[in-house]
Amino acid sequence: MPNPVSAILVVIVTIFIPPIGVFLIAGCGADLLINICLTCLGYFPGHIHAFYLEYIYFNRRDQARLGNTVQKRAPGVYSENIQNGGHTSYGTVQA
């Protein structure tokens, strides 16, 4: 069973400062830069983007734990960590 405390902490951090929540799940990359720009343009666009990324991340993480693989990439997500739900696959052959 996944640890819900980590998800709750990420959501609480995102409520106050959206780019930090994105950094916690995506790292430093294009998604973080996009979120910083959206937060500077308006506080709510940054929130929408951050919560979208978190939804994709936690959904993919739960699917991977159940053994389901998601073949289709999520639109507008550039981080492989989010696309894979935090799980890394080794090699080039899909299981």
Question: Please, could you describe this protein's structure?
Answer:
This protein is mainly alpha-helical. The protein is 64% helix and 0% strand. It contains 5 helices and no strands. Helix 1 packs antiparallel against helix 2 and helix 3 packs antiparallel against helix 4 (43-65). The model has no long low-confidence stretch (mean pLDDT 87). Keywords: Membrane, Transmembrane, Transmembrane helix. This is Plasma membrane proteolipid 3. Belongs to the UPF0057 (PMP3) family. Pfam families: Pmp3 (PF01679). It comes from Imshaugia aleurites.
Essential attributes:
single chain, 95 residues, mainly alpha, 5 helices, 0% strand, globular, transmembrane, Plasma membrane proteolipid 3, PMP3, membrane, transmembrane helix
The shape, in one word, is: globular
Question: Gyration radius, to the nearest Å?
Answer: 14 Å
Count every beta strand, where a strand is a DSSP E run of 2 or more residues: 0
* Largest sheet report: none
Q: How would you state the average pLDDT, rounded?
A: 87
What gap, in angstroms, lies between the N and C termini?
22 Å
Instruction: Bin the helical content.
Output: 55-70%
Order of helices and strands: HHHHH
List segments where confidence is low: pLDDT < 50 over at least 5 consecutive residues.
Answer: none
Strand content: under 5%
What count of helical segments does DSSP give?
A: 5
- Report the structural category: mainly alpha
Transmembrane segments: 7-26, 32-53
Organism: Imshaugia aleurites
InterPro entries: PMP3
Family: Belongs to the UPF0057 (PMP3) family.
